[in-house]
Predict the structure.
Amino acid sequence: MSYESGNLDAALAAAVGDDHVLIHDLRRAFLESADRQIDLLARARDDIAWQQALWRLKGLCGSFGVVAMIALVEQAEQVPVGDVKSLRRLRAVLASLSLD
């Protein structure tokens, strides 16, 4: 997943230049927002809540160039609400981004 981290870092650097404090703050904001959306997915009880959380997560990831997570979101759009495998995969990508 270092490729994903590179996409995230490149998107942040393109947006703010080499301001390392701002990059750190934006990275943290992304990670927190993505974590919130994945939590909403885990708590979704109907198609509307599931799709809405996926839509928000996909938009967030698109804004930051996190393409592997976008692909997982697109897969999750095709499975039943609360799909454990999808949630596990999304959390794994998020955890790998958090390590950097």
